[in-house]
């Protein structure tokens, strides 16, 4: 199975909201994700993340602590996704590749259709002081 390694930015603002982006194309068009992208040969995950945010969102970020690494099998590939807590250092987050974006309060994280691997990050954020329920959990409670 094809292996893909990426870095993702969990960008927070002063109100503790988290920045989410909606994919504009591909197999997972319209699904939501944390911004970021593939790690190129010779790059660290942090370097790749800073480059990807410049390319996709025209902003400079500060890459903080590694929150979590996700290992996820999609139908066509295995994903390793390193997720870092980040803040905007310089610039305004401007969509250059994504269809849409939202700042989500911790209680609103479940309001969008996240990619499957990103749900694991939402679960980790719960234990990091962020609360959100996965839609499946809500159905099971009913």
Describe the structure.
The chain has 142 residues and is α+β, with helices and mostly antiparallel strands. Helix content is 23%, strand content 37%. The protein has 3 helices and 7 strands, in the order ββββαβββαα. The strands form 2 sheets. Strands 4-1-6-5 form a 4-stranded mixed beta sheet, sandwiched between helices. A 3-stranded antiparallel beta sheet has the order 3-2-7, with no helix packed on it. The C terminus is likely disordered.
Summarize, please.
This protein is an alpha+beta fold and 142 residues long.
Helix content: 10-25%
How far from one another are the termini?
A: 38 Å
Mean pLDDT: 88
Structural class: alpha+beta
Approximately what portion of the residues adopt beta-strand conformation?
35-45%
The major beta sheet can be summarized as: 4 strands, mixed
- Note the overall shape: globular
Q: Strands of the largest sheet, in order across it?
A: 4-1-6-5
Number of helices: 3
- Strand segment tally: 7
Uncertain runs are 131-142
Task: Give the SSE order as H and E letters.
Answer: EEEEHEEEHH
Radius of gyration: 14 Å
Question: Could you outline the blueprint of secondary structure elements for this entry?
Answer:
Blueprint: E1 2-11, E2 18-22, E3 32-33, E4 36-38, H1 45-57, E5 60-73, E6 77-90, E7 100-104, H2 116-127, H3 135-141
Parallel strand pairs: 1-6
Antiparallel strand pairs: 1-4, 2-3, 2-7, 5-6
């Amino acid at each position: 199975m094809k292996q893909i390694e990426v870095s993702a930015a969990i960008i927070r603002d002063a109100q503790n909201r988290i920045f989410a982006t909606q994919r504009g194309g591909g197999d997972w068009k319209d699904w939501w994700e944390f911004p970021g992208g593939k790690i190129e040969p010779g790059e660290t995950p942090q370097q790749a993340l800073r480059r990807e945010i410049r390319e996709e969102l025209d902003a400079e970020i500060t890459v903080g602590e590694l929150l979590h690494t996700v290992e996820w099998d999609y139908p066509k590939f295995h994903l390793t996704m390193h997720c870092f807590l980040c803040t905007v250092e310089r610039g305004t987050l401007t969509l250059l590749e994504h269809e849409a974006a939202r700042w989500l309060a911790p209680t609103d994280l479940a309001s969008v259709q996240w990619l499957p691997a990103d749900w694991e990050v939402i679960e980790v954020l719960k234990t990091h002081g962020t609360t959100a329920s996965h839609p499946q959990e809500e159905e099971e409670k009913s």
